[in-house]
TrEMBL record, chains A, B:
Signal peptide: none annotated. It comes from Prauserella flavalba. This is HTH tetR-type domain-containing protein. The lineage of its organism: Bacteria, Bacillati, Actinomycetota, Actinomycetes, Pseudonocardiales. One of its GO terms (molecular function) is transcription cis-regulatory region binding. Residues 45-64 bind DNA.
DNA sequence: ACGAATTTTGACTTTTTAGTCAAGAGTTGA
DNA sequence: TCAACTCTTGACTAAAAAGTCAAAATTCGT
């Protein structure tokens, strides 16, 4: 029956089939997010997504009722995963605000550059997303920013950081991290790790903390 | 006869008519660049460009033989203008490397944020440009980067700057400036000038120079 | 003011891509 | 093995946007 029931929630099926379906959806979302990240929303066509998955376009519409819905799913899933990692890192991090901020920046850059090469750029560089998704991306960014903001303000209070304006620092942090995946695209292994470390050091300069 | 002779070079016409034609082309290019900057290459349709100019699409094809050619013209014209302003500033700038770098950053941000609100973002955020134009954008960026690089290296030699890696600093500078127009979009007048100043101060931190 | 050169128009074709769907292939549990 | 359920296909439609062009409108030089 196709699109109508693409995202029905309470559909009675066996647990096993349901699991399989969920896995397939994840596969699709992952591939779609990669492409959205590489090219931006507009420039991705579903035929390409399908091709990467070795299926045809029609099959995508069995799981998602529109391109927009697929976009939303990509943003949702990957965004949650990302936020989780940052929050978990902060839970186990200790040391001075500078040490914790360095760890947070490092984790953030690592995620963007190494772990999700193109996929998560989706969130960082605003492309031509439909309004609904832009809203979601903005929410996510606010959540991430809050993690950084709290830490930076703690560091200022402790007299460790020299910051002219917290918001401006956040913008620069965000902008730099968002373009990092593009710079580091060709690098691999050792060189990439070095680039991530150097970027982390450089970004710490924004709050007045020099390396060493 | 339309498209065929859209960009013929040696067409025999009177000087006056030739001038008029050139002016019209500039008008079109300016409007097109604005739209490309706002939405990215893909998302701009020529009907919209034409509408902003109060003409119809067919008319654009009298001057440009394709959308791609219009894109190239936009990049070329605006890029030259921008580079000119930066080079002129450096000619008349004096003082320490820090003072000159601050002036250069300030000028660059001012151009991007205030003088060409959306237009020149074309160069800064990589969108889905066809390969040929991507090449041009890269060239332009290299030229701009060189201006910054020379100054930063001078400042390092003079012992004024603390920099872990020049390339990484350039990337962060570039990334931050490229997203600045988006942050400052709503601001106007006094608030915008303040934002530009604060961004300049914050970016100077990247080379280890604190305000005051 | 008039003929020639230039510019604009709007209806046209073509291409691309989102979205639909009936029919068939594959899976599952009994 | 069979019937019901699930998934995939490929040919289809629809809409949007690039690109074309003959004819009409405008502007120019004399």
């Amino acid at each position: 029956m196709g699109a109508q029931q693409a995202v029905d929630e309470a559909r009675p099926v066996s647990a096993r089939v349901q699991r399989k379906r969920g896995k397939r959806i994840q596969e699709i979302v992952t591939v779609a997010a990669e492409l959205f990240g590489e090219r931006g929303y507009d420039a991705v066509n579903l035929e390409d997504v399908a091709e990467r998955l070795d299926v045809t376009k029609g099959s995508l519409y069995y799981y998602f009722s529109s391109k927009e819905e697929l976009g939303t799913a990509a943003i949702q899933t990957l965004g949650d995963e990302w936020t989780d990692r940052l929050e978990k890192l902060l839970e186990r991090a200790d040391g001075s605000p500078a040490q914790r901020l360095r760890a947070l920046i490092h984790e953030h850059v690592t995620i963007a550059v190494r772990d999700y090469p193109a996929a998560l750029r989706v969130f960082l560089v605003p492309r031509n997303w439909p309004a609904a998704q832009r809203e979601r991306i903005k929410e996510l960014r606010t959540r991430h920013n809050q993690l950084f903001r709290d830490l930076i303000e703690e560091g200022i209070a402790a007299g460790e950081f020299t910051v002219t304006g917290v918001d401006t620092v956040l913008q620069c942090l965000h902008a730099s991290m968002s373009q990092a995946p593009a710079w580091c695209a060709e690098l691999s292994g050792r060189a990439q790790r070095a680039a991530i470390d150097e970027l982390t050091d450089t970004l710490m300069m924004l709050v007045g903390v020099h390396p060493d």
